[in-house]
Structures are given as structure tokens and as C-alpha cells.
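Q: Give me a protein?
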Amino acid sequence: MARILIVDDSPTEMYKLTGMLEKHGHQVLKAENGADGVALARQEKPDAVLMDIVMPGLNGFQATRQLTKDPETGHIPVIIITTKDQETDKVWGTRQGAKDYLTKPVEEPTLIATLNKVLAG
């Protein structure tokens, strides 16, 4: 199916998201922080990115903005997946270029439906 890059500094979240995606036939790429996520996205050109917000160094908002504003990676849909559930965070996330915004803990049907939606364009 699709190649999905997960950018999250939590090993638990990484494990859970990887399991959900692989169960549905997706190939998973992993980065533990925003800077590595941006570099890996530029190198590998995944079909979509699942982006956490709260990470050391380059946070998810900054990384999303870098990916969506870069001509090389701007076509790759970014879905923010975070514990930050304030309306202002959602608005800010979309302003950075994210195609969707999910709050943790994310349910598998929600994740897969959202992913299919952004992959379909």
C-alpha cells in the first residue's frame, strides 16, 4: 500500500501507530524528532506523514511548516497526531499546512479512514 513516515518521540506511540499501519499493509518509516522527520521525508518522499507536535528540538508545527512549504515535499500530506486538543492548536496545525489533525489516543478506524482520505487527495 502506502509508505508512511511516523515522526514521534514516544516509543509507545511509535509502536502503536506502526502496528495499526502495518496491519493495513502500509510500509512504515520512522523518525524520533522533527529535524530527522524533515530530513527523512526529503530523502524518502513518503506518501504521507504522521506528525507529533511535542518533541525536543524542532517541534511538529515547525517540521510540518518546513515540509509543506518546501517544493520537494509540499505534495506530501501531513496528519498531525498529538495530545494537544485545543481548538487553537488545531487551527495553528492547519495553518502550518497539515491536512488533518487527530488527538491521541487515536483509534485505528479513525487513523485508517483519515489516512485513506488524505492519500486519495
Remarks:
- The chain has one domain: 3-120.
- The chain has five helices and five strands.
- The helical segments are 11-23, 34-44, 60-69, 87-95, 108-120.
